[in-house]
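F.,

This is the one I mentioned.
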């Protein structure tokens, strides 16, 4: 019950990288189609019919529905989509679309947005490498080596002998190790994306 309240936020955090990839692919598609001479409504219609763009295709369907059924202009529908979404990257995309649609030169604005997203991702990856390496050493050094040596020492001091050492190894390899690996994997996923 408690997790269901935060499900949407957790899902956005865990799938942030996938959403970023979907937005990057859509940006490349939009830029190429706009440069070929299509209009923004045609591009959004094309994206909305394709399932390979994921959340962006769903958002495009919503924008098209606002224009066709609700009677909003395209700029108003984009503004509504910008207010409706909780994904910061889509908010940036909608802002650039609104500016480009109203003032022109949309392909250039979206190309700059694409470059900014890629540059930001590369900078974040570079800054995260050192931190991730240190955390890995800390997690596996402090999380596995110290408990292992302490438990083996206590098993030997309590005269438990070989079964005590086996119980220690079993605990570390089947319970503590996988838990540390899971926590470390989640941290790396959140940090890299």
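My design for it:
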């Amino acid at each position: 019950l408690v997790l269901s309240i935060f499900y949407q936020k957790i899902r956005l955090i865990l799938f942030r990288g996938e959403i970023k990839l979907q937005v990057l692919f859509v940006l490349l598609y939009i830029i190429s189609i706009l440069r070929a001479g299509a209009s923004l409504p045609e591009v959004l219609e094309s994206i909305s019919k394709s399932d390979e763009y994921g959340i962006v295709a769903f958002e495009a369907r919503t924008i098209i529905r606002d224009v066709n059924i609700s009677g909003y202009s395209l700029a108003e529908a984009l503004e509504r989509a910008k207010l409706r979404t909780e994904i910061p990257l889509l908010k940036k995309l909608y802002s650039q679309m609104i500016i480009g649609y109203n003032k022109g030169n949309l392909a250039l604005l979206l190309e700059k947005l694409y470059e900014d997203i890629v540059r930001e991702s590369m900078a974040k990856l570079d800054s995260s490498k050192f931190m991730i390496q240190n955390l890995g050493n800390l997690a596996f050094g402090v999380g596995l080596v110290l408990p292992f040596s302490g438990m083996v020492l206590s098993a030997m001091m309590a005269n438990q002998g070989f079964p005590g050492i086996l119980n220690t190894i079993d605990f570390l390899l089947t319970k503590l190790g996988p838990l540390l690996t899971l926590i470390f994997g989640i941290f790396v996923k959140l940090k890299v994306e």
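The radius of gyration is 25 Å.

Talk soon.
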